[in-house]
Amino acid sequence: MPAPFRLILLLSLGVFAQTTFAQPGAGPMPVVVAPVVEREVASYRSFVANVNPNRQSTIGSAVDGRVVEFLVNAGQQVTAGQSLALLRTGTIEIEIAGAEAQVALAKAELAELENGFRPEEIELAEAKVEAAIAANRYAQAKLNRTERLFKSGAGVSENEYDEAVAAALGAAASLRGAESSLEMMRQGPR
């Protein structure tokens, strides 16, 4: 190799070495050596999300009340007709008992209407009519006497005459009412 060429080569190596090794900071790259192991790697990913159900159901109760116990847990699958919770039923049971008593009373009244009146009830109504007839005859007779005395001026006041008229009208109305009641009993329920 000619000398000038060697000199140029030597100078270039010197400049190259100075620029490469003179820069501060960058040191050699660390290398970690580990033995190679063959195994299956599980691939998974984690995500943050909201999971919404395909179907939601709103539940309710036909009656008001406090929940005593939940029979299912949140997220648990349920079937149609399955009980989900128990309500306090103390007041409801009282209302049911009252309603059952009203039903029993209505059934008894219906049976009474279907069977008609007992013979004793009809006899009692007949006796009331007879008493009303007697009271009406007495009131009419008293009215006739009071009217004669009033017209003749024999000491009967106008007030006494008016009382006799009112008593006669009341007795006649009582007789009509007693006769109507007896007739309804004889005909029976509608």
From TrEMBL:
Location of this chain's protein in the cell: Cell envelope
Keywords, alphabetical: Coiled coil
The keyword Acetylation is assigned to this record: no
Pfam family, one: HH_YBHG
InterPro entries: HH_YbhG-like, UPF0194_transport
Coiled coil regions, renumbered to chain: 96-144
A Gene Ontology cellular-component term: cell envelope
The protein's name: YbhG-like alpha-helical hairpin domain-containing protein
